[in-house]
Automatic annotation (TrEMBL):
Coiled-coil positions: none
A Pfam family it matches: HTH_26
Protein name in the entry: HTH cro/C1-type domain-containing protein
Domain HTH cro/C1-type: 11-64
Length: 248
């Protein structure tokens, strides 16, 4: 059957929102990338194939239809007000993390000290903030892109620097899944640019792995956080040894 333009566009938005490429989708569907591209360009896919793509995206046909009727792109960033609401209520921030990582209600209630009413209340708040869409059965559809970014200098970034950074580095990085690399040196402007690009490549790879593993059960996944940064910087303990610049 020929699938409507609106449904195809909705599928494309959902793919972009989850950072899923045609190549990755083809791998999940056990098809060639060329066949997937042709299927989307010709809008020639069976209902069974449509359902398979929805399974990969973890959305139902009714959710796809709703997305088609909305016709809007996923948010690449939250607003200042949305970030403020999240940092003011840690449980709400946790609810967003779990929703974005596709935790189902039964898994949340099994592993976290929420009642069903409390969990529902958190999802309702996220829905009212416009960050998720609350669906039947307390399923959540993220209105953000999978790889959305916190606002530079915004409430969440400030909250991390002031409250979470110390907690992040409090324990030793000596576990099998840990990694801490402290590097310092002098680079050319071009070297700094290339290093920034490499960090952005790591970010994209992390996003791709999140998408790949999103359909696994919570017991098969480990909550993981990366802090990637670079800046011109000298340890404060070295500052006393710097020679004052001649400003004359």
């Amino acid at each position: 059957m020929a699938v409507s333009v609106e449904l195809i566009d909705a599928l494309k938005r959902l793919l972009r929102g989850q950072g899923l490429t045609y190549r990755e989708l083809a791998s999940r569907l056990k098809m060639s990338e060329a066949a997937v591209k042709r299927m989307f360009s010709l809008r020639a896919m069976s209902l069974q194939r449509l359902e398979q793509i929805c399974d990969v995206l973890d959305v139902g046909l009714s959710e796809l239809a709703a997305e088609a009727s909305r016709g809007r792109e996923s948010m690449a960033a939250l607003t200042e007000a949305q970030e403020k609401a999240l940092v003011s209520e840690p449980a709400l921030l946790l609810a967003l993390f779990l929703s974005l990582n596709r935790w189902r209600q039964q898994d949340v209630l099994a592993q976290f000290a929420f009642t069903e009413a409390q969990w529902t209340g958190l999802l309702v708040k996220l829905d009212r903030l416009g960050i998720i869409e609350l669906l039947p059965g307390n399923r959540a559809r993220a209105l953000t892109a999978r790889n959305f970014r916190w606002r530079r200098g915004g409430p969440m970034e400030r909250y991390f620097r002031e409250k979470l950074l110390t907690d992040y580095f409090a324990d030793a990085f000596d576990g099998e899944q840990d990694g801490l690399f402290l590097l310092s040196g002098s680079l050319s402007v071009d070297g700094v640019r290339q290093m920034r690009q490499r960090l952005e490549d790591v970010v994209r790879e992390f996003d791709a792995l999140l998408i790949r593993d999103a359909t696994l059960s919570p017991k098969e996944r480990i909550g993981m956080s990366l802090v990637l940064a670079q800046k011109p910087w000298l340890l404060q303990l070295f500052q006393g040894y710097r020679r004052a610049l001649d400003k004359s």
